[in-house]
Design a protein that fits this description.
Blueprint (H helix, E strand, L loop, with lengths): L19 H10 L4 H10 L4 H8 L2 E4 L2 H10 L13 E5 L9 H7 L7 E11 L16 E9 L1 H8 L7 E6 L22 E5 L2 H10 L8 E6 L4 H11 L6 E6 L13 E5 L12
Parallel strand pairs: 1-2, 2-3, 3-4, 4-5, 5-6, 6-7, 7-8
Antiparallel strand pairs: 8-9
Helix pairs in contact: 2-3, 7-8
Length: about 280
């Protein structure tokens, strides 16, 4: 008589999965923990997309060589990690290469960037063209330019190529005089409903802003000036945004002092209700 064999199957591993929305919240909580995110990226193939959204959210290029390396690693734009970038930082050695057609094709792979930071401080870039950057990211909402000498015609043509642009920042160091070049405004410009920050080069920038065909609708303005024209020019800005302005800040530095954010000698802030023009300067 044969005895039936009892077959026991032991499960040595247990699988457990989290709902995607829960895992997404966990990864978002770890957005500043780069080492942990890198570990998550290699732990599971299904985790790669979420972790890359944070690992490659901010891309910075300081020179042409890293750009060439990036183009070699990702020759196919459809497989490029640039799709994850939300902030793009271009430094001064990169800007002169923007006239290179290869660089133009590369820059357009960053089509989901929302924040563009251009740091071209230290050299004269008055003759540099920004055409390759025009409209490269339809989702762009913020543009900050740090510069010494640059063509505002090129800058404002660039601004007008982004229909969703909300925030603008101009930081000019070691000014050698206003740069006001001839400019024919395009038929349309972004609504500019966010914040405006101007540090140096106030007169030339305000003139260009007032020429924008779409008008100005900033909710927050911060101005730094170092000459007697500052209050008058600031008043022009405020009057242009009187229907939308919620916060206004003006700072002053004694004439002849190098314009620098770290050398503000006097600070005055005034907050008024909408539709009121701030008209008192210390």
């Amino acid at each position: 008589m044969s005895v039936p064999r009892l077959v026991v199957k032991a499960q040595t591993a247990m699988s457990c999965s989290l709902p995607p929305e829960i895992f997404d919240l966990i990864v978002d909580h770890l957005h500043n923990e780069r080492t942990t995110l890198e570990s998550c990226c290699v732990a599971s193939k299904s985790w790669v997309l979420w972790t890359r959204n944070h690992l490659f959210a901010h891309i910075r290029f300081d020179a042409l060589r890293p750009i060439k390396s990036w183009m070699q690693v990702f020759p196919d734009p459809s497989n490029s990690l640039s799709h994850h970038a939300r902030t793009l930082h271009l430094c001064e050695q990169v800007v002169p290469t923007l006239t290179d057609p290869d660089v133009g094709r590369w820059i357009r792979t960053f089509h989901r960037v929302e924040n563009l930071y251009m740091d071209i401080f230290g050299r004269d870039y008055y003759g540099v063209s920004f055409v390759q950057l025009h409209g490269f990211s339809p989702t762009l909402k913020s543009l900050t330019l740090v510069y010494t000498s640059v063509s505002l015609k090129e800058v404002f043509n660039l601004i007008c190529s982004f229909p969703l642009l909300e925030d603008l920042g101009f930081i000019r160091y070691a000014p050698t005089g206003p740069i006001i070049d001839e400019w024919n405004p395009p038929p349309a410009s972004p609504k500019l409903t966010g914040s405006l920050r101007i540090n140096g080069g106030l007169r030339s920038i305000v003139r260009r802003l007032c020429d924008l065909p779409g008008g100005l609708h900033f909710s927050k303005i911060s101005v730094f000036h170092n000459n007697d024209e500052g209050p008058t020019l600031a008043t022009d800005l405020v009057s242009k945004c009187s229907d939308t302005l919620e916060s206004f800040t003006i700072s002053h530095c004694a004439p002849g002092t190098l314009v620098s954010a770290s050398m503000i000698s006097r600070h005055l802030t005034a907050v008024r209700e909408r539709r009121r023009v701030w008209d008192t300067f210390a």
